[in-house]
Amino acid sequence: MASNHTEHYQLNQWSLDDPVQMEDFNADNRKVEQALTALENNRLRLATGSYTGTGTYGEANPVTLTFPFKPKLFFSFQGDLSDLFVLVHSGNTQYVAPDRSSSDYTMYFSWTNNSISWYNKHNAFSQLNTKDKEYHYLAIGI
Asked: What pLDDT does 62 receive?
């Protein structure tokens, strides 16, 4: 059995005259496994990509993106950062760009476990879905 332990995680530290026991190694491996699992479960995750607009709009034609994690913050933009669209996961279901006051620019959105969908009632441009235009995105989540 180890006569000493590390300061923070109490992992075994042996002296030359300590008997080495398999259970000491197994206990340390369990502690390391638990710590790595906690890190994995609490880390931020990122996804980047792009989509090409289809030219459709409206509630029946939302843009929907799916990720391998639950997104909490989402950015969509064109290559030159025009038409920047930012969403933060909250109780809100509508978004109007700060420089747009008309309801023509209102975006309606929803979040599911690992997807985000949005639409605009008036046109594909305001939905960030202009036909054949490439949009880029960044999603941050857990």
From this structure: 96
CATH architecture of 45-141: Sandwich (2.60)
Average pLDDT of 93-111? 70
What is the phi/psi pair of residue 16, to 5°?
Answer: -60, -30
Residue ranges of the chain assigned to CATH 2.60.320:
45-141
Neighbours of 127 (CB within 10 A): 25
**Which SS3 state, helix, strand or coil, does residue 31 take?**
helix
Average pLDDT, whole number, for the chain?
A: 84
Q: Which of 99, 106, 61, 52 is nearest to 79 (CA)?
A: 52
Bin 58: left if φ > 0, else alpha if -120 < ψ < 50, else beta.
left
Tell me the pTM.
Answer: 0.66
Q: First-to-last CA distance in the chain?
A: 40
Calpha distance 67→115 (Å, rounded): 6
Q: Hey, what are 105's tokens?
A: 């620019």
What is the structure's pLDDT at 72? 86
Tokens of 134: 């490439």
Whether the Cβ atoms of residue 53 and residue 132 lie closer than 8 Å to each other = yes
